[in-house]
Amino acid sequence: MVTEGSAKMVEAMSLALAQIDASQTAVLLDEYVAYQAAGAPASQSEALRKIVAKTLLVAANGKALALFGLKGSELPVPVSRIWPFGEAETLALSLLAALRQNDTHRAELNLRHASGRELPVIYTSWREVNPSADIVSVGFVDVSERVATETALHRLRNDVAHADRISTMGVMTATIVHEIRQPIASILNLAHAALRWVGRPEPDLAAVKSSLEDIQSAGNSVRDIVTRLHGMSSAKSQLRARCSVNELVEETAAFLRAELSRRQVKLSVQLDSYLPLASLDRVQVQQVLVNLMMNAAQAMADAHCWSRTLLVRTRALDASIHVEVEDSGPGVPPETRERLFDGFFSTKPGGLGLGLRICRSIIEDHGGELVYVSKASAGSIFRFSLPTGS
Fold this sequence. Notes:
Protein name: histidine kinase
Distance between the termini: 47 Å
Shape: elongated
EC number: 2.7.13.3
Keywords: ATP-binding, Kinase, Nucleotide-binding, Phosphoprotein, Transferase, Two-component regulatory system
Pfam family, one: HisKA
Structural class: alpha+beta
Strand content: 15-25%
Catalytic activity: ATP + protein L-histidine = ADP + protein N-phospho-L-histidine
């Protein structure tokens, strides 16, 4: 029961404050806790649905009413008017904290405006010092602008990362054309041979079959090349999935080997055969590998290194996978090492200085880290880690 005094107090506050009545949810909260302990998700979900339906929004000040697009004359209303079922667990946990533990509960979640649009808020619940029945006080902070800004920044970063992938592929145009031209030339030669075999007075069907099989193989090669190019140039990131980092390294090495050979770089790969799987976005992590490997090749070319070697190695360490890209180039001067990952800082003439910054952001988004490791001898090592998870 909400007293006249408490209602006036809520109205007087300048924050978005409200009170909810949980008097009809006591048994449901007990059921929810019991089902959770018993590991009964279906019953647990049903209890949550009932908790949302039975909890009432009984008082709200002007700020809260405006926030959710409600009118004071509508109260009390079921909290389900503003609380989607997807956030039901947060409601249950906040009620348990307030009513059973006399504690506050804070969470960031998406509630619902009366118009139906999603409303991101920071939500806090507590029980007053002199509680009245099962009344819980709640406060809301609208974080819509912050969430919108974060979403815009994330989209911008993805756009810049996409542009960086396209730029990298532009540098490799000659290699890409060469990779596709070879199997296409094979297909044409094999087709001509098959026509000759068929045109004989006694067609050699075995030779024709062999030519058609080789054509199919060459066609598959073209398809695989186009698939790899499409994946790298795609503006959309893939969903993260459990992947083999070794396979990703091998695929990237195969993709870049011809281009690196053209730049007189000898590529070696050392793979830990006992590497666990990692949850990752294949396109993004492959972008990091391509950037690091092409940066190394460019650095060795710019320094006119006589011996140009590039080593990519993987190894498992504790609960993470480490990937190292090591080159025999000139290394990075001590005075520039601290700024390597700064945005718009580049050691290349005309470089934008975004490549390494993007790479570090991608790895950090995966829960890992990207660092530069100096070598006692000439050369550089860039190492990134990826958590293996459970």
